[in-house]
Amino acid sequence: MERVEKNRIIEEFRGMKNGKLILLSGEEGIGKTTLLNDICNEISKEFFCFYIKYFEASVDEFFYSILERIKKEVPSLRLGIVEAISKKSSDPLNILISIVTVMSSFKNILMIFDDVEKYNREILYRILFLIRAIIDSKVMIIISYDENFVNKNFNEFLIKTNELPQESIIKIKIEGLSRENINDIIKEMGYTLPKYLTDKIYNATQGNPGKMKEIIFELKSKRLIDGDNYWVGTFEDIPEVKSHKYAALDIMNSLNENEKDFLLYASVYGKDFDIFHIAKLRNMKNDELIELVNSLVDKKIIEERSENVYSFARQEYREILYQSMSNIKRRYLHKKIGEFLEKSCDCPEIIGNHFYFSGEYERAKKYLLEAAERKFKEGNYRYSYEIIKKYMEIESNPDIVPLSLMIDILIKLGLYKEALRYVEIAKNKKLENIDILIKEAYIRYNMGDYEGAENILASINENVDLEKSFYYNLIRGGIELRRANISNAEDNLKKALEIAWKIRDNSFLAIVHKELGNLNYYIGRLDEAYENYLQSYQFYEKINDYEGLARIYNNISLIDINRDVKRALDDYQKSLFYADMSGNAYLSIAIRLNLSQLYFWSGKVKEAEKEIKIGFELSEISGEQEIRHSIYSYLSDIYLLKGNFNEAIKKVEEAIKISNVTGAKYFESIYELKKREILAIKGIEQEQAANPYDPESVMGITVDLYNSLILLYSGKFKDSSELLENALRRGEGKFTFIDTIIFEGNLPFVHLLNGNKLKFIESYEKLKKKCDSINMDILYLHSLAPTYKYLKNFNPELENEEKFMVDNKLMFLLLKTYLIYYNVSYDANILEKIKEISKNIGFDYIKFIKSP
């Protein structure tokens, strides 16, 4: 029978213009796999379909298996690209993304991931990365899962999918079949059953075909259905459908004592267990072990994972057994297994956990600390954090080693407030040393407390050793940069670079190249900044540092905006992926801020508001001050274009306050300029800001750019156009497009108000050409396009742009659109709209319109 879900999914697939993500849920036995295979068979007749069933694998094995499947299913002529791309990248996920992107350009693709709730966290996050990377291609991805078995990792995965464009996500729950459908299936199976029985089966299963078949097979095994498939039982004989838990309890109760005892050890041992280890713990002979294991495999209680290693076939089997023991027995088995593994396994985390759960805390601490240190060195900071938290839970008086490690981990995770708490613990215990002080300075610097960081550095001898000297110069250079003391910043960072090369530490080289990139970025040397970031990337890649890779992709994206917005968006997605993998809260905020700005200025207003909402909430939780002033400044831009001038002022004043408290003078100066612009828009007369800077410097150009807008909203159009044009010319190659978008977008507006229609057309065409060259649409083009088309004798299509701005509540931008259009069309209806919006948002429009 044809399921409605099948038709809906196929219809969505055939009609999709961009990528789609389908979250397909349904309980076990409901028919998800059958449905998905039917869909894949149908789609494969005209398009590409790849069905991926769950299997236990490492990350690389999992994605390589998908690549192998593509190679088999797609004619080799079409996929010569596989080999070409494979030679350039050893990362199977990146190869897969490249191949799918290319293939989708000439045929739609369906990728089905079944039983996704069973995958581990690493694979889930990479599937999420895959979705983010290809969601704009003509690819549909189906994620199929059983809602009854959603664990913590998969629940996090589902939450993360909410960050994708909502129009790309479709949620479908597979419901049970109808009573008639169930009856048809029973007939197709060849059974002749009375109606009261089929009704009872339907009510018990709620139309779940898998459960229905289980009941019928059970009735058959009990001989209540005879050899000719006729019902020979009574009404009282009809079994109830049990929950998975009760069904599992029945299975456990059917085991003999030897099997049950073996499985008790297995349930304590862990998710996967070595059968020979358990045999030694129980003094079993080999032939006895093999017989017992074969019996449990035959009963589908356990299943083989690799040589000698097995796991429970269902997670609830392990849970039932583990919970069935008394606390005393559980602790005894944990201790026994821990002592056994001490002699046979180099696995401090596992040993530490067994001693932890046995209550042997002194023995547990040694192994947990060792495990946390190992995970930290491997770059797995989130996992290291989970282990060290367990250590701190059982150690009431930690010494300098675990405290220092905890601080290092928290710095890597961007949890600076919590890191400071552990610094204070070290200080209160009189355990602080130069290492702890340097870490505190680094934390305060990252939180934007530059004065606090400087006070600490003042108490430290810079030359105490090379490592401390590196951090001293790195922090000092970063602070000087944020205070716009460029020369001092460059000197300190170059010293840090020299030290990093002397130590030959890849992590130091990665950090200092990143900071040098930031310096070059701020002073407008974008090509040099890009090179610094690429060098930093290479060092972060060598040490497999997810946090560092996230930072670098975020920074690279800022420059890639000048080259190709699609590439920049790809950089952001990679950055978010690595930020998720690292667990760094600060990074997630910073990336969302940049991504939101790119969305906003390119006209994807709703996506922008969604990203910045998440970023703002995260910043409130984490208390990161350095990023919060940037968020408030950006929110001010949004409120300004929406016509809420009072809220725009509040937000920029908040940005000024935070940047002042943190000592970020560079940013404070810019926010003060922005405040002057908004006040001028409100009709409050503003003097031009003094410009004591070198006119060719980034700061000197920035002051002139804002002064040109102050002149614009003060009605001094000629002065404004001259200053704006001049400043933009001086700024070429020194700013990213996002940095100057407000000013470049206003240039045609200024020219028109200055009475120069020819320059309006020229500046519009230049802006449009620039946007086209980097694959970007911008808000200002929406505002300028109707007037440009009118002057060129095309259909202005004003109503389309009106709808766009009204839908996104961009009332000040809409007002500017009307002002520009009225000054060439002199349309009385437009004038009425100008008056109405101006009244609503509090704008004095008189000086911005000319008489016919």
SSE order and pairing:
Elements: H1 4-15, E1 20-25, H2 32-43, E2 48-52, H3 59-73, H4 80-88, H5 92-104, E3 109-113, H6 121-134, E4 139-145, H7 152-161, E5 169-173, H8 179-188, H9 195-205, H10 209-221, H11 244-253, H12 257-269, E6 272-274, H13 275-281, H14 286-298, E7 302-306, E8 309-312, H15 315-324, H16 327-344, H17 348-358, H18 361-377, H19 381-394, H20 400-412, H21 416-428, H22 434-447, H23 450-458, H24 466-482, H25 486-503, H26 506-522, H27 526-542, H28 546-560, H29 565-582, H30 585-601, H31 605-622, H32 625-642, H33 645-662, H34 665-681, H35 698-713, H36 717-731, H37 737-753, H38 757-773, H39 779-791, H40 798-807, H41 811-825, H42 828-841
Helix pairs in contact: 1-2, 3-5, 4-5, 5-6, 6-7, 6-29, 9-10, 11-15, 12-15, 16-17, 17-18, 18-19, 19-20, 20-21, 20-22, 21-22, 22-23, 22-24, 23-24, 24-25, 24-26, 25-26, 26-27, 26-28, 27-28, 28-29, 28-30, 29-30, 30-31, 30-32, 31-32, 32-33, 32-34, 33-34, 34-35, 35-36, 36-37, 37-38, 37-39, 38-39, ...
